[in-house]
Structure formats: structure tokens, C-alpha cells
Amino acid sequence: MPSKTCLPIVDEFGFFEVRLDSIGGLGAHLAGQILGEAAVIKMGLNALHFSSYGSEKKGSPIKSFLRFAAPDRQIRSCSPVERPHLVAVFHDALLKTTGGLDGLRKDGTLIINTRQTLEELKAFGLPGNCRIYFIDALAIAIEEKSRVNTAMMGAVTTASGFLAPDAVLQALSETFAKKHPSAVVPNERTFQRGLEELELVAEPSCDVIEETKEDDMPLRPSPKFGYLTAPIGGCITEAGSSYTRDLSASRSGFLPVLDVEQCVHCGMCDIVCPDLCFVWKQETSASDDALIKFRLEGIDYYYCKGCMRCVDSCPSGALTRQAEEEGFAERHRVVMFPEAKQ
User: What is the distance, to the nearest Å, from the Cα of residue 106 to the centroid of all Cα atoms in its chain?
Assistant: First the structure.
């Protein structure tokens, strides 16, 4: 019989709330599901898990929500978690795009999968009134040949203060054993490293980050239009455009790298690229002015979401899949629209 576990802190409804901020392909939904099952089946708590996302595709933003409560407290709310006690950001680029810090409670907990330093991430407005943890979940996943979500589960388990590692590990193993038995051992190692390699980098009122004035982080902004304030039907006030669309937050830790020396300029990569992020240069043949050639100059990583279709289609091996290092995309980017302010 699972033993009763006390939650370290709860809101006015008796809930401890968690939000996992991620992108499709990193496994945040499955991570939330396993954490919820571990709490209910293995620990005797009440828990509710669900996710919010748009199109089900790799690179799309996703938020996974968890509510935990004591065994005698029913959970009847299925609304999004707006004021979480713990936020886990699966990709540090999400800090600038999806409101991952919105509503985080004072004295709450923030976990970030990153290779950057605390000083480098200050520009994203990290709160100074909560505990901040860093973990390089991508490096762990690559080394163990698993996925980011398992390392993040270990990090959440440690930082939560109440989730039992043995319970979560057992739930994780049972889940993978049903469909992917060969993945059980690598993911168990990844989870264990997530438990151990989580690093506390800041506490409330630390010297590096100024303390946030608000008790909690501000909530996400309200929609621009509602049923009373919407413009006349058919009126498009802000036309959609990919001209200024930064897709760097959609990459799941890998990007395509071009070796120009091996490239045969066949154009197969450009045909399969869903975001048209390859930059070409038009040339005229020296012997025949009527003959026009196009040569591939490089990749504009501003528009690249790391789907790797180009790597799969490249016949010459000029495009390879590599783990993204901080600053690599900026240094090797070939700008497609120099006139755009990006």
C-alpha cells in the first residue's frame, strides 16, 4: 500500500502545481504522464496531468501541466496551470518566446535545460525570488542515447522535494518496458543522472539576479481581442509572415551543418526544406552569359527548426546532423534577408 506523502507547499486549493514548458519532440507530455502516474499509483497521492499544444509536430510549442494533491483532496480543475510552484523549461531558447516564466510563484522553483551560464541567461528576465536550477539534459541524453525528457524527469523529481525517486524510476521503467524494452536501461541511467547532475545556481535574493518586485511573476498577457473588442469580420489587422519568424527555439538540440566543399548544389535540400532556409547565389557562366547557375552559400539558421529533412535527402553527404553548441548558429549563419532587422 503506497504511503502518504506530504506536499512541501500548496496553494489555496490544496494543490502543488507544475508546468513543463517544451517543444514537440522533447517528450514533455510523456514526462508529465509518468510523473503523474508515479505520484498516484506508487505514492498514494492524487494527481492530474494534461498538455496544451497546437499542431502535433516536432518543434511546436507545448506546455504540460501537473497538479498534485493529498490523498483526501479531490482535483476537479482541468484549467491550465497559471501560477505554478515549479517550472521546468526543456529548452533555454523558450525563455524568450513562449512565456515560460509567466506566473511562477515567489519562492518557487525554476529548472532550465541549458549549457549557458546564469550570467548569460540574465537577459531573459530570470526572477530573483525563486530557486533556479540548471541541468545539461541534452548532453546527458546524447551520451546515454536516450531523450531529454528522462533527464528532466530526474531533475523535477529532485527539485520537487516530495516525489520519490524510486517511485518515478519504477513508473518510468514500466512505461518503456511496454513498448520499447531496449530503451529501459538507457533511460534509467539518464533519469539517475538527472537526479544527480541538477545544479542549484541561484536562490532568492542572490547577488547575480536582482530580486523581483512582484510577489509572483506576471501572468501571461490577455488576448489582444475578445468577443467585445474584435474588429469587423474579415479585417486582418496583422498579416501573417515568416519574414521575422525566429525558429531557433524549435530546434531540439541539433542542427544541420553544411560542408560547402562537398556540396554538389543539386537543390535536393531546398526542395524538402519546409521553411526555405537555404541561401543561394545566382551566377552567370563566364563562357555563356545566357547560362545561369545557382550555388548554395549556406543556411540561415534564423529560419531553421532542425527537422533534418535536408540531411536525410543530401546525396553527397555535405549536410550532417550535429549537436548545437551555444553561438554556433550565429557564427555560421548566412543571412537570407540582410535588410531585415533580426
Answer: 23
Nearest in space to 22 (alpha carbons), one of 105, 93, 115: 93
200-223: b (≥16 Cβ within 10 Å) or e? ebbebeeeebeebeeebbeeeeee
- Is residue 211 one of the residues assigned to a domain? no
pLDDT: is 205 or 261 the higher one? 261
Nearest Cα residue to 64 out of 48, 79, 50: 50
- 39-68 per-position pLDDT tens digit: 999 999 999 999 988 765 666 788 999 999
Ranges 62-76, 142-156, 225-239: which has the least confidence: 225-239
- Give the chain's domain count: 2
CB-based contact 277:299 (threshold 8 Å): yes
Last residue of a domain, one of 171, 186, 202: 202
Q: Residue 160 sits in which domain range?
A: 16-202
Q: Is the pLDDT of residue 1 over 50?
A: no
| Domain CATH number, residue 52 | 3.40.920.10
Interval 269-284: pLDDT, tens: 999 998 889 999 987 7
CB 104 within 8 A of CB 79: no
Q: Cβ atoms within 10 A of the Cβ of 341, count? A: 5
pTM: 0.79
Q: How far apart are CA 8 and CA 120, in angstroms?
A: 31
DSSP-derived 3-state class of residue 171: helix
Strands (E) in the chain, as ranges, are 16-23, 46-53, 61-69, 86-89, 109-113, 131-135, 199-202, 254-258, 278-284, 292-299, 319-323
User: How far is Cα 222 from Cα 219, in angstroms, rounded to an integer?
Assistant: 9
- C-beta atoms surrounding 248 within 10 Å: 20
Q: Render the burial of 146-164: b for 16+ CB within 10 Å, e for the rest.
A: bbbbbbbbbbbbbbbeebb
What's the CATH code of the domain at 325? 3.30.70.3270
